[in-house]
Structures are given as C-alpha cells and as structure tokens.
Amino acid sequence: MIFDTHTHLNAEQFEGIEKETVEHAKELGVSEMAVVGFDYPTIEKTKKLSQEYDNIYSIVGWHPTEAGSYNKEVESYLQKELDKAKVVALGEIGLDYHWMEDPKDVQEKIFRRQIAIAREMGLPFSVHNREAMEDTYRILKDEKIQDVGGIMHSFNGDYEWAQRFLDLGMHLSYSGVVTFKKTLDVQEAAQKMPFDRMLVETDAPYLAPVPYRGKQNEPGYTRYVVEKIAELKELSVEDVAIQTTKNAQKLFGMKQ
Predict the structure, then answer these.
(1) What total of structural domains would you count in the chain?
(2) Would you state the pLDDT for residue 255?
C-alpha cells in the first residue's frame, strides 16, 4: 500500500499505455496516486484519468513556468476544477528560477494568489521549487500557511532546510532523488525528519530512482523510494509504505 503523491501519468510519454502503467504500479505495491495537472491540457487529462480509475486522484494548479498566462479566465477555470470530486490539492505551484519563463515578481504574484485560493477552498497545495529555495521559504513564511498545509514536492534540501519548512507546517515529499548516490544531504534530511510529515512520490516520467536512474520513470517506481527511506530510517518497507500513505490520506482529507 504505497501512495505516489505526485506523478504525471497525464504526460505524453504515457499516452496509450496508461492502463498498463497503472497495473504495473499495483504489482509493485503502489495502490494510489495523485496525478498533477498544471495547464489546460494536463488538467483535462488528469480529470479524465481520475474518472476512469478509482485509485487515481487529481492535483490541479498553474505551474510557475506558466505564470505569465495566468489571468481571470484561468482562475475561474481552476476554481471550478478544484471544487470537483477527487481533487485533493492545488498544485503544482511555486517558483522556477531555472527556466525563468517569467520574471520573479510575476511568479511570486501568481504563487501567492494560488496559496490564497487554496486557503479559500480548504485545500492543501503542492510546491514546485527549482533553484528558488530562499524565496520559496520567504513567501511561505509570509503567507502563514500552517492553517492550509502543503507539500514540498520532490524535496531536495538538506536537513537545515527540512527543519525550516517543517516549522512552517509543510510536509516533505521524497522522489527518486533520495536514492541517488551523491545526494547525501537529502538522505540525511529524510533519515532525521519526523515520520508523520513524510510523503513519497515519483514525479514520473522524470527523476527515475535507482536502479532505473536515467530511464523513464513511472508511478510504480515509488516502491524504490520507499525502499531507500526504509533503509535510511532502519524500518521495514511495509512500515514506510503504511505511514507515508496514512500521511497522504490525512493531508488530502481522505478516508483512512
């Protein structure tokens, strides 16, 4: 029983093989997944998948690389979609200073606005943070997000950063990055952080974990993330699977 809290089964890489991918995930113990839609096409595909599969849920938002296209029409569309059944969070939202499709001030404005929408709708949110750790932290702290709750998606910070985001009330979600040989700081953070605030994910089709690093990722490979965390925390794979799934279900307001 593993919950992949952030995957892109709606990506073109899975076109036509969604059923096989979901079945393979089940074979590896991944029983639930949240598919993230971050623009019009991916949100529509996410919605379709959640309608077709009982074990698929939706996360819906406007990605920071799309911030420049955010307007009243987009906002109305998001609010309508967020109010639908099986939508468990708003996201992925945040800052992306790697691609810099839009200026920092534009990204920040849209980030803050979507946090406000999450608060209004009583939903947690999933944060995309690429090369923008300081500003992401500043904004979340300013917004006093403890009453909303959220996820640092594919968290790749060290233990000090983990503590800072945990102090704000965030959950930390670990992806295949935690399995890489050189990410010792990420592994230390995962080892030391509180178990009840930890989530797991793939971010498939990206960031495939060891032993599939460099290949196309898929939701089923969340199992290898769970195995690595079990090793780091000196726990059983079953214990990590059960606890991280409970954490996800509680955060997403699902029946446990």
Answers:
(1) 1
(2) 76
The CATH number linked to 135 is 3.20.20.140
Report residue 87 as tokens: 């939508």
Rounded-to-integer distance, Cα 35 and Cα 246, Å: 18
- The answer to whether residue 42 is domain-embedded is yes
What does the CA dihedral 139, 145, 150, 156 come to, rounded to 10 degrees? 40
Residue 108 lies in a domain: yes
Q: How far apart are CA 41 and CA 101, in angstroms?
A: 19
State if pTM tops 0.85. Answer: yes
In tens, the pLDDT along 61-92 reads 999 999 999 999 999 999 999 999 999 999 99
Name the region of 207 (left: φ>0; alpha: ψ -120 to 50; beta: rest). left
Cβ neighbours of residue 20 closer than 8 Å, sequence gap 6 or more: none
Asked whether residue 183 is domain-assigned, the answer is yes
Please give the Cα distance from 12 to 7 (Å, whole number). 13
The residue segments making up the domain with residue 245 are: 2-251
How far is residue 19's CA from residue 21's CA, in Å, rounded to a whole number? 5
Q: Does some domain include residue 256?
A: no
Spatial separation of the C-alpha atoms in residues 201 and 6, rounded to whole Å: 5
